[in-house]
Specification:
Blueprint: E1 2-6, H1 10-21, E2 25-29, H2 38-41, E3 46-48, H3 51-55, E4 60-63, H4 75-81, E5 86-89, H5 95-98, H6 102-105, H7 110-118, E6 123-125, H8 131-136, E7 145-149, H9 154-165, E8 169-172, H10 195-203, H11 210-218, H12 223-231
Bound molecules: NADP nicotinamide-adenine-dinucleotide phosphate (NAP).
NADP nicotinamide-adenine-dinucleotide phosphate binds near residues 30, 51, 66, 67 and 131.
Pfam families: F420_oxidored
Protein name: Pyrroline-5-carboxylate reductase catalytic N-terminal domain-containing protein
InterPro entries: NAD(P)-bd_dom_sf (IPR036291), P5C_Rdtase_cat_N (IPR028939)
């Protein structure tokens, strides 16, 4: 498939490398000139690109961005995303990084908010697996799982297939309105879990506990330091 990825950080860069290794034709972008992604140019199957060009007429576009930038995406990029057959969002809301985003504080699931801004359906995938595990624990024994939330149908099947191709068992997490069950602070969030463990963890989530989930998420006060600490595991 032709896959365009916006965001070349821990998650976007890892997905680009793994999806290219799985045989896909990957275009990768950040917020800058593609020349800043020279390290990826050497990888077979990855072509650095400007953001709008990366996702124009692709089979799958993947957004792997801090949520604070979503409302500021250019009209050109949103128009280009409309040409992608499927859009996947890996994003999670962290006030320590993104600032306060009122609809998300009030309980709109993160990726529903992204879909509304883009004006098109999205799938929430790869938000619920920590980047070092995404990078190093594909095809592990026991096989770990990654969740897929979004509308049922052929597009969702294609999202499942991508998860499987990079070494994880896909778990159906329902439609986007249920995707709060996958967000930071919830029982399955960024845990290394098998498919059965993730299903049990999702079943254990409760709307009564949402404040506790948010408190867990908000316990990270210095987001940059947490990301620097992650680097040693990449
Ligand atoms: N890290 C994890 O373990 C993990 C796991 C699951 C999900 N997530 C979520 O996935 C998303 C990405 O996380 P990450 O850890 O990969 O972040 P990251 O390492 O900080 O990378 C973010 C990427 O987004 C790019 N970017 C920022 N603003 C942009 C814009 N306006 N246009 C195009 N590109 C832009 C950055 O490029 P520039 O250098 O040009 O700014 C960078 O390449 C976040 O929402 C995060 O919460 C993270």
């Amino acid at each position: 498939m032709k896959i365009g990825i916006i965001g070349a950080g821990y998650v976007g860069g890892t997905l680009a490398t793994k999806l290219a290794a799985a045989g896909h034709d990957v275009r990768l972008a950040n917020s800058k000139d593609p020349a800043t992604l020279a390290e990826f140019e050497e990888i077979d199957g990855i072509t650095p690109a400007w953001a709008a060009a990366a996702v124009t007429d692709v089979d799958v576009a993947i957004l792997s961005l801090p949520l604070k930038v979503i409302p500021k995406l250019s009209d050109e990029l949103i128009t280009a995303l409309a040409t992608a057959e499927i859009v996947i969002d890996t994003g999670n809301y962290y006030p320590a990084r993104d600032g306060r985003i009122e609809p998300l504080d009030q309980g709109t699931p993160d990726s529903e908010w992204v879909a509304a801004i883009l004006g098109r359906p999205v799938y929430k995938v790869f938000n619920n697996i920590v980047a070092p595990s995404l990078k190093h624990k594909g095809d592990s024994d026991p096989r770990l799982a990654a969740t897929v939330a979004g509308p049922s149908g052929e597009d969702k099947n294609r999202a499942y297939a991508l998860v499987g191709q990079i070494g994880f068992d896909p778990v159906d997490a329902g439609d986007l309105d249920q995707s709060w069950r996958l967000q930071p602070g919830t029982p399955t969030y960024c845990q290394d879990m098998t498919a059965d463990q993730i299903r049990a963890g999702i079943a254990a989530t409760s709307p009564d506990d949402v404040e506790a989930y948010h408190a867990g998420r908000d316990a990270i006060e210095d987001f940059d330091a947490a990301m620097v600490a992650m680097r040693q595991y990449m």
